[in-house]
Design brief:
globular
């Protein structure tokens, strides 16, 4: 059984300041395969946009953990697209960029179709964790959810992922 989880929680400190925790992980056969956790401070700089700064920690079952500094923007683009773009700076000159966009298409007042696109780009190969330079992974997916209330909205979804992995070379 392969399970993938994604959670995001925000806590408002003041009107324009937020503390955001983003967590995503993949589990298989009862253990963590990969996990990404971000702790971000967000400050509104426009009514629909936040600038974000913080830290990210990656855990990989196949290699060492990686820590990153994170800087980005998140907000509501024209035509109601939710956009998230974050740049990361890691140790040993590692750089990364994560882009995502989603849209909510209301089929009825409670039935919502949500397409989503996500891409991860890395500045250099990291064979220890199996990450390739350039476009390392991309995911396209769609969710269909029914909102019984704002607190309870079960969904069913499907996603297709592309992954470019690098393998360690023997010298």
């Amino acid at each position: 059984l392969h399970l993938s989880l994604r959670r995001q929680r925000q806590m408002c400190i003041r009107d324009s300041n937020k503390l955001t925790v983003k967590a995503e992980g993949e589990f298989a056969q009862g253990r963590v395969e990969d996990a990404r956790t971000e702790l971000l401070w967000a400050k509104a700089f426009h009514p629909y946009w936040d600038v974000q700064a913080g830290i990210r920690n990656d855990i990989s079952a196949n290699g060492p953990s990686r820590n990153w500094l994170a800087f980005g923007v998140q907000g509501l683009a024209p035509y109601w697209f939710v956009v998230d773009a974050t740049a990361y700076l890691g140790t040993e000159g590692r750089t990364a960029l994560r882009l995502s966009a989603e849209y909510e298409l209301l089929l009825t007042q409670r039935l919502i179709l949500q397409p989503r696109l996500e891409a991860n780009v890395y500045g250099k190969d990291d064979p220890e964790v199996g990450v390739g330079r350039g476009l390392s992974s991309a995911t396209v997916g769609v969710r269909l959810r029914y909102e019984f209330s704002r607190q309870f909205a079960p969904y069913i979804g499907i996603a297709v992922s592309y992954t470019h992995l690098t393998l360690p070379t023997k010298a």
